[in-house]
Automatic annotation (TrEMBL):
The lineage of its organism: Bacteria, Pseudomonadati, Bacteroidota, Flavobacteriia, Flavobacteriales. The chain crosses the membrane at residues 27-51, 88-108, 120-138, 158-180. ATP binds at residues 456-463. Belongs to the FtsK/SpoIIIE/SftA family. Its main location: membrane. It comes from Pricia mediterranea. This is DNA translocase FtsK 4TM domain-containing protein.
């Protein structure tokens, strides 16, 4: 009976949990297993009739002329010999059943958890039956198979016949208790209930109307026959908690208490788990059927730029070391320090592309500050610009003196992009800046920075640095994964990226140029980015995740429904070249949204890179600085500038040409920025731009400025010629957005915006509502006609 209940439960547990294969593959595998199980079944059964005839053929399997009597010929004879004769005897049939069940599980895509249990029990049965038959029918070894026979033999050698019998008895008890959930009181109840049912049947035969309909009958029963049974019946009706006392007359009712008496709690827990699983199963099933969502699919044929688009800049081997120069510098350092009575215990040189680091361990008792103060003297004696003393080198306990090489080696972008460190970088937005002083490629994750401030006097390598950042991302990221917003007031530095507008750039709806050169447009873009940020936070909140990475992972696993507004979110990188210019002209209007973005945008994948020539405090204000932990300083002209950008000096001692300091907190790292020339950028953008692209640049949310949409007073005569058409479009679509008018009537952004203002003045659309489309106040075209004709009266 318990088995019956189990079956019923296992049936109800049929869930759509996947087995890691696609549905088609599961059907194929399932049918293969079912057919195999049938083949084995026929082989095994016929083996018992044909084994003697086929025995001689076992060694001649490959001989095509020989024919076996087994229903499945030589295959059947061989496999049966192996599984039945040498294996488990007649119990091997269980194997065919297990295979068949497994096949059905696959075929019907059932949950595999129960399957594993079935196999375990199947094997237990096989071993027990084999052992039992080996014991009981030891004169017929085919029944128990070699396994049963040998096991018996082995056990009997140690425990004798009685011992084996007791072992078998224990095995049987184990199976009865664990598999059939048999308990002595359960059995007693079962038999009592059967007895009671029989008794009531007998009674039912004499008095067919006496069953559970009237209390008078019950009292009668009570008087006449088994009082216990009737007691239970009345309890059962009134007090369900006492059901377990005695079963009632009806078979159906008897089964209920028996079920509750046995291991029911565990079963109910399983049911709860099942419900939880089903939620996930929908996405698991989607993933199994269609695979994970692939955001790159729309541009599936996109080819990443190849390395040969980059120039090696004449550097083929590593850095060439001038041994003489090294010795010379070393001697000069030692001598200068000696002049100031500073003894050196040890000196070591690390040769970098632009500078060589001399690491010295001073003799015991030398004060570090003394060496630090000798910076100018050492520079003088070495007759070199750009000496930087790091005392002490963090984490090393030595003092570093960086001396520029006479012949600096260019670090080509090609070499850093090709480096395994960059190629293998498992970062969200990896950037290969260049090489450190020990000639290691320096790769950082923009997503971790999360915003970057870049400063340097004119001609020191800022634009090259920005190009290095953009190139790194272009080499690592698919157009679906990252979008750039480029602000270039100088109008010349970033123009080349126009070619990849429809792949990698994002812009405001309706703007013609993807690269922003106009300062007023920057304000709109920044505000639009703030709207995008708020929208993304809403999406993250709805998805119950903390950042864009988790969000996108969840979306790819098809756990977020696009119908609820969820979509794959690309990273957005905003690059502003010449920030000083912008802040001078727009001031607070720019500073406020930038500060807001810098404070909040890290989690939702919007990252800012700001470059400026003048790192003065009125450009890099406190609020901006506080939110840009990653700073890069190219050579600046004064110590004050260095302090403003890095909070430390040193940038004034750089040698220019891409020599830079990078800090992201405390440590300052000197890096030679990778050099990528304009023709190389042109080649890369050309390569990408010539490939199939999205229909348009990535569209940012619409932002119309704070003062728009209020106090509008348009004369009817001043209305746009397409006013009525636009009104019809808006009313038909019931969506008050300027971009809709733009698309439908093929207008520019400004004109569409004006029309929207006129529609608002006419009371056709509601006021501006931030990122949302305006409300349409007119329900249909008839109402619109009426409204417009009323106006004319
Ligand atoms: N990493 C580098 N390696 C070698 N040379 C470099 C590097 N960076 C810049 N240079 C040299 O310096 C020149 C000026 O660089 P870049 O145009 O980047 O300066 P900038 O700081 O952007 O100047 P501006 O602010 O006037 O635009 C480049 O043309 C190049 O010759």
């Amino acid at each position: 009976m318990a088995k019956k209940a189990r079956k019923a439960r296992s049936k109800s547990k049929k869930s759509r949990r996947t087995l890691g294969l696609s549905k088609q593959n599961k059907i194929i595998l399932g049918s293969l297993l079912i057919l195999l199980s049938m083949a084995l079944f026929f082989s095994f059964v016929s083996f018992y009739f044909t084994w003697q005839d086929d025995q001689s053929l076992l060694t001649e399997f490959s001989d095509r002329n020989e024919e076996a009597k087994n229903l499945l010929n030589k295959f059947g004879a061989s496999i049966s010999h192996f599984v039945v004769y040498k294996g488990f005897g007649i119990a091997s049939l269980i194997l065919t059943i297990l295979l068949c069940i497994t096949g059905l599980y696959f075929f019907l895509s059932l949950e595999k958890k129960g399957l594993f249990k079935k196999w375990i029990w199947g094997l237990v049965f096989m071993i027990w039956i084999s052992l039992a038959l080996g014991f009981l029918a030891d004169t017929h070894p085919l029944l128990g198979g070699l396994v049963g026979y040998e096991m018996n033999d082995f056990l009997q050698d140690y425990t004798g016949k009685i011992g084996v019998f007791l072992i078998l008895l224990f095995g049987l008890t184990f199976i009865l208790v664990r598999f059939f959930e048999f308990t002595p009181d359960g059995a007693a109840r079962y038999f009592t209930s059967k007895k009671a049912a029989l008794a009531s049947n007998r009674k039912g035969g004499t008095d067919s109307n006496s069953t559970n309909t009237s209390s008078a009958d019950i009292v009668l029963d009570n008087e006449e026959d088994t009082p216990v049974t009737i007691d239970t019946y009345t309890h059962k009706k009134d007090i369900p908690s006492l059901e377990d006392e005695k079963p009632a007359k009806d078979d159906f009712e008897v089964t209920v208490p028996v079920e509750e008496e046995t291991d029911e709690l565990a079963m109910e827990v399983e049911k709860i788990v099942e419900e939880e699983e089903e939620k996930d199963n929908t996405s698991d099933k989607l993933v199994a059927d269609f695979g994970e969502f692939d955001p790159t699919l729309e541009l599936g044929s996109y080819k990443f730029p190849t390395i040969d688009l980059l120039d090696p800049h004449g550097v083929t081997g590593g850095i060439t070391i001038n041994q003489e120069e090294l010795e010379d510098n070393k001697n000069k350092i030692v001598e200068t320090l000696k002049n100031y009575k500073i003894g050196i215990a040890q000196i070591k040189a690390t040769i970098g592309p632009t500078v060589t680091l001399y690491e010295i361990v001073p003799e015991a008792g030398v004060r570090i500050s003394k060496i630090k103060n000798l910076e100018d003297d050492i520079a003088l004696s070495l007759a070199a610009l750009g000496i930087r003393i790091i005392a002490p080198i963090p984490g090393k306990g030595t003092i570093g003196i960086e001396v520029p090489n006479k012949n600096a080696t260019i670090v080509s972008m090609r070499s850093v992009i090709a480096s395994s460190k960059f190629q293998k970088a498992e970062m969200q937005l990896p950037i290969a800046f260049g090489k450190t002083i020990s000639n290691e490629t320096f790769v950082v994750d923009l997503a971790k920075m999360p915003h970057m401030l870049m400063a340097g006097a004119t001609g020191q390598g800022k634009s090259v640095g920005l190009n290095a950042v953009l190139t790194s991302l272009l080499y690592k990221k698919h157009p679906a994964e990252v979008k750039f917003i480029l602000v270039d007031p100088k109008k010349v530095e970033l123009t080349l990226y126009n070619k990849i507008e429809r792949h990698f750039l994002a812009k405001l709806p309706g703007s013609d140029e993807a690269i922003i050169t106009d300062n007023t447009k920057v304000i709109n873009t920044l505000n639009s980015l703030c709207i995008e940020m708020d929208d993304r936070y809403e999406l993250l909140k709805a998805a119950m995740v903390r950042n864009i990475k988790e969000y996108n992972t969840k979306f790819k696993a098809r756990k977020l429904n696009p119908n609820d507004g969820h979509k794959f979110l690309p990273y957005i990188v905003l690059v502003i070249d010449e920030f000083a210019d912008l802040i001078m002209t727009a001031g607070k209007e720019v500073e406020t949204p930038i500060a807001r973005l810098a404070q909040l945008a890290r989690a939702i994948g919007i990252h800012l890179i700001i470059a400026t020539q003048r790192p003065s405090v009125n450009v890099i204000t406190g609020i901006i600085k506080a939110n840009f932990p990653a700073r890069i300083a190219f050579r600046v002209t004064s110590k004050i500038d260095s302090r403003t950008i890095l909070d430390a000096q040193g940038a004034d001692q750089l040698i220019g040409l891409g020599d830079m300091l990078y800090t992201q907190g405390n440590d300052v790292t000197r890096i030679q920025c990778a050099f990528v020339d304009t023709p190389e950028v042109a080649k890369i953008t050309e390569y990408i731009g010539s490939q199939r692209a999205y229909p348009d640049a990535h569209e940012l949310p619409e932002y119309s400025g704070e003062d728009s949409g209020t106090n509008l007073d348009y004369e009817i005569a001043d209305r746009d010629a397409l006013f009525q058409e636009a009104a019809e479009v808006i009313v038909t679509a019931q969506q008050g957005s300027a971009s809709l008018i733009q698309r439908k009537l093929k207008l520019g952004y400004n004109r569409a915006g004006r029309i929207v203002d006129q529609l608002e003045a006419a009371g056709i659309v509601g006021p501006f509502e931030g990122s949302k489309a305006r409300q349409v106040l007119v329900p249909d075209l008839a109402a619109l006609d009426q409204l417009l004709s009323n106006e004319l009266k």
